[in-house]
Specification:
Elements (H helix, E strand, L loop, with lengths): L2 E5 L4 H12 L3 E6 L14 E4 L5 H8 L4 E4 L6 H6 L1 H21 L4 E7 L22 H17 L4 E7 L1 E3 L2 E3 L2 E3 L9 H7 L6 E4 L11 E2 L1 E3 H14 L5 E6 L5 E2 H12 L5 E4 L14 H7 L7 H13 L2
The protein binds nicotinamide-adenine-dinucleotide.
Length: 319
């Protein structure tokens, strides 16, 4: 039986990964400082180390004896990164540097990392391929690109690494203990915000004059359970001295209006919306090419947008 360290295991994606890895028979250790995560999201079968990526003692405790690391921990709000770029550099780049140093101290050579489509910035081709130019438009995207470069560098010294560049993640996992879903504060993701919208707090729809079929932005959504399945597959392709970069999305785009319409069908009522101007820095369309994920990981997402919204709504009702 292998033991896996999940950093950020109290967060949205890390908590789902922890439970699915335990269900698959792995032992799991979680390192999280609970800065944006929730202790009650951590599966009680996991060993929990409360501490920061920036604390070498906590890192030693978390890393010692594991075979692999899945690294979700970090800061992930684009607007916050514009306001506080040093924070994003310190936690995402500095914290990962410290994690890699701890792994080296303990002879751990296998790492799967949460990268992001934000590394690409404004797309110069669609769908976005892993070979597409990377010109991040935020300190958040820049920090993820820097970590991808750190991993490539560490691979030249023997690390086995995979960077998974997520597009938009949505949905939730039903467990024996209840639902694990998104609980970000503030919540910047469209699906939970659509489900949360009310007459008093309508959804702000940024931009209705984009050059897209219905004028709203188009994004690529993937269900959290499909996303974590790709991580389990990534563990199997880790190879010392190699760093693979792999997009994770569904390979198709949904417009903001399509997400709203599907949510209205799930909710059985209209979603109150306020149309507002475009948000600076938002590309019109972001869609992933998932050919590399198909070839390297043998992976294809199975759950569609309706399923993502159904599950996100069930998780919200269960709160
Ligand atoms: N959710 C998405 O749609 C999405 C898309 C692209 C990339 N990502 C990346 O995936 C990862 C997980 O995203 P999420 O949505 O689960 O976020 P999240 O905020 O729910 O989870 C992040 C977790 O990391 C922990 N953490 C933060 N800083 C830490 C530190 N210094 N030391 C230890 N723990 C720390 C937080 O407490 C939290 O539990 C992030 O790296 C994010 O950038 C997420």
């Amino acid at each position: 039986m292998t033991e896996i360290l999940v950093t950020g295991g109290a967060g949205y994606l890390g908590s789902v990964a922890t439970t699915l890895l335990l269900d698959a028979g792995h032992r799991v250790r979680v390192l999280d400082d609970l800065s944006t995560g929730h202790l009650d999201a951590v599966d009680e079968r996991a060993q929990f180390v409360e501490g920061s990526l920036e604390d070498p003692t906590a890192l030693d405790e978390a890393v010692s004896g594991v075979q692999s690391v899945i690294h979700f921990a970090g800061k992930s709000l684009v607007a916050e990164s514009v306001a506080q770029p040093e924070l994003y550099h310190r936690v995402n780049v500095g914290g990962t540097t410290q994690l890699l140093e701890a792994m080296a101290r303990h002879g751990v050579t296998r790492c799967v990392f949460s990268s992001s489509a934000a590394t690409y910035g404004e797309p110069v081709e669609l769908p976005l391929r892993e070979t597409s130019p990377t010109q991040p438009t935020s300190p958040y995207g820049e920090s993820k690109l820097r970590v991808d470069a750190l991993l490539s560098d560490a691979a030249t010294r023997g690390l086995a690494a995979v960077s998974l560049r997520y597009f938009n993640v949505a949905g939730a996992l039903e467990t024996a203990r209840g639902w694990l879903g998104e609980r970000h504060h503030p919540e910047t993701h469209l699906v939970p915000n659509v489900l949360e919208a009310s007459e008093n707090h309508p959804l702000t729809l940024f931009g209705t004059d984009w050059n897209t079929p219905d004028g709203t932005c188009v994004r690529d959504y993937v269900h959290v359970v499909d996303l974590i399945d790709a991580h389990v597959r990534a563990l199997d392709v880790l190879e010392n001295g190699r760093h693979h970069i792999v997009n994770l999305g569904s390979g198709r785009g949904y417009s903001n209006r399509e997400v709203i319409a599907t949510s209205e069908s799930v909710l059985g009522r209209p979603v109150p919306v306020v149309e507002s101007p475009r948000r600076p820095g938002d590309p019109a369309v972001l869609v992933a090419s998932i050919e590399r994920a198909e070839h390297l990981l043998g992976w294809r997402p199975e759950r569609d947008l309706r399923r993502m919204i159904d599950d996100a709504y069930a998780a919200r009702l269960a709160r």
